[in-house]
Amino acid sequence: MPRACLLLLVPVGLVLGLVGTGAPAAPPAQPNGNALAKQLDAVLDGPDYKHATWGVLVADAKTGDTVYERNPEALLAPASVTKLFSCAAALVAVGPDATTETAVYQRGVVTEGKLRGDLVLVAAGDLTFGGRTRDGKVVFRDKDHTYANSGLGECELTGTDPCAALDDLAKQVRAAGITQVDGEVAVDDRMFARTRGSGSGPDVVSPIVVNDNVIDILVTPGAKSGDPAIVTTRPESAFYQVDALVATGDEKATAAVQLLPLGANQFAVRGTVPAGGKPLVRIYPVDDPTQFARTLFLEALRRNGVKPNAALVRQALTVLPVKGDYGKLTKVAAFTSPPFRDAVTVTLKVSHNLYASTMPCLVAAAKGFDTAEAGLREQRKILEKLGVDVAQVSFGGGAGGAPADHVSARATVQLLQGMAKRPEWDAYKAGLPVLGVDGTLSGVGDDGPARGKVFAKTGTLVWFDAANDRMLLKSKALAGTMTTKAGTALHFAMFVNNVPLPAGVGPGREGKALGKLCEVLYDAGP
Q: Phi and psi (nearest 5°) for 404?
């Protein structure tokens, strides 16, 4: 799909996990024909949606009875609500408590601490790979660093060590008695075929993921206007080169920082940040996660008392072991991932596009295949078993930004109904953003009556309308589960497509509209 020019911060088509053709169809007769329907209709039929299309379905979670509907079977772009489907399939295929082991093998003989052969790190699809863990728990920020180039405001770093897993592996290699490696240090990334994801942020989908396959750039203003800003990066590595020159402007100045590609793994940082402002986060996605991880592993080995003789930046064309032969080699280190439910939580809470794009690949691997396309076909089978009418879904990827990604409100509610009957439901629901509390629903309905009562996945897809110098909100979406003031549990899906936004108006306006719909359901629902 056409993508946002994220480095230059020019919005073209952003697939975000945020909340907020022809004239709309006449509202159907509602099951109860009551005040609730009138209040919901008042929002959906507002003047801002003259050219838009709504698809809405609200159902009683216990009985399945329809509470409200509007075009429930229309195929609409769901944006990041797509992640509900990819994460559900992955939870079923992989299991919420499953862990993966990223292992390091020696190929050769160790004599007096010297390995006369190779070290091979075998990627296992660990999405967080130690880089989000603090005190044994996986952590996240409501505005994830992978969105830092999308103009969404103050994205934050977790403050964790992106190379924690690599350092742990390196220490184990040293503890195994290896102090020098004469051969190659390689990364085996053959778990599944590399592909491209859809959506903002890093998009190279690979079974090896370190720091979400990005280089973080932190720009801290100087003490006063005119001072140079302080630019730091993480993880620090010889893998890349950065030329930074950012000025500190007036306190009222608007932050304007650009990342300019200069060559392979070379970029410049230019711009201005306001004096007294918070440190600004930007990211530089890496094009080759395997080489990135290999360089970082070599550096981790050096930090931890192991001397590798391999070239730092570029892996030699070493023939990797036959996959079935690893059982014959000596395993010298292993890092175990957190339970898979933790990766799903991060994916849903912050709407992590890279993780979501990897989910079909993990489904494929769990079923004995190695491509994202095979994973999507397996996902279809899982959805069908969950009771989803698969004729009402269309997916080209796992994140929600592929042109093919379309679903109906009915299929989405069917998904929620099917998952609610399965043992994975608790992990699934726990991963959803909570209205007014966390993730992409933090800051939405903070002081409203439904705060803390709505667990839902958000979605936003925006295109730039150059002809009219405005944004076209292709999709604003919200789907999940909630409990009304009367104590009734509901499953719901709300999509609005093709909303022209006036100059200066962002998709947050529709985020508030969706929040309003939730408040109406909470107050006036059954």
A: -75, -15
